[in-house]
Structure formats: C-alpha cells, structure tokens
Amino acid sequence: MTGFWTKPLRAAITAVPVLALAGCLLVPQHGQSSDILETSLEKLGPVVDATVEITYGPYSGLTRSASTTLDIVLSDDYSVADPEAVLRWALQTVWSINDEKPTTTVGVALLNPDGTMVDWDWESAVTALGYDPEDIRFYLGLPSNHGELTFSANDALVEKMGSWPADVPPLPESAFTEK
Q1: What are the structural domain ranges in the chain?
Q2: Considering the entire predicted model, what is its pTM?
Q3: N or C: which terminal CB in the chain sees fewer CB atoms within 10 Å?
C-alpha cells in the first residue's frame, strides 16, 4: 500500500520547488519599483519630491484589491506648461510601478512644496486624453488627498495605458516650464 502513495507524494514534493521557481519568473519585467521611481523622479529638475502610496483593500477570495497613488511635489520655480503631456506622463508613470498591479484606482496629485494643489488645467488634460471629467474623482482638501485625480483601474484605463506594468516614460520636454 505504501507504493501506491509514493509516486504522487514524490510528484507533489518535486512540484513545490518548480512552482516556486515559476513564481519568480512571473515577477514583472517592465516598469520599476516605487522606491526606484521615487528616487529617479526626484532627480528631475521640476520635481522636488515624489511619493508612491499603494493601498490595499479587502480580499475577495484569494485576491485583494490595490490602488496606487503618485504624489509629485513641483518646485516653486516651475509651472505646468502642457497639461495633457503632464497628465499622460504622470498616469503612465503610475502605470509603470511594478510593486503591485492597481486593480481599483490609480491616483495622481501635483502639489506645491507647501502641500497645496498646483494650479493647472487638469480638466482640459482629462478631456484631451479621452476621459470624462465627470468620471474622474477629484479629492481636494482631505489630509491624504491634496488635489488628487483618481481614475478607475478598469478596461478603459488599460486600453489607454497598455499592459501593466508599462515601461517608465520619459518626462516630455514640453511638460513644465521655468517661471
């Protein structure tokens, strides 16, 4: 009777390391981690500080929901020159963070060094990118959401951003201008 269970047991023991190795191969090959992204953004002239926040929701079966937000603090010496280019770049940048796939929302906030929202024409940028401003949640004045634009991580976003994680986009030259 012991011989009957030997083969299945041996197969199961062999499968565990193989599956673990396969899991390592499933690590995203594009994008970059939030830590590396924050450091690289802070090296850009217009950016004083950058913070990525990944928020987890409840589990649904074996999966849990995740939201990713990028707060970009803009230097007082710069202003938004091309709102569409800035929003496209910021959304693609959030979509390139490979720590955890956003499944509920993606948020972007442009802040002044004092924590207030940068004055920029985000509504025209949202429209130019094919979103309806009425569908974008806009949080203003909440302690953790200073002028954050929040997009649903749904099929429409995936269609615009491509597969996750995306390659890290370069900052468009037209995005910001010195004051």
Answers
A1: 30-178
A2: 0.80
A3: N
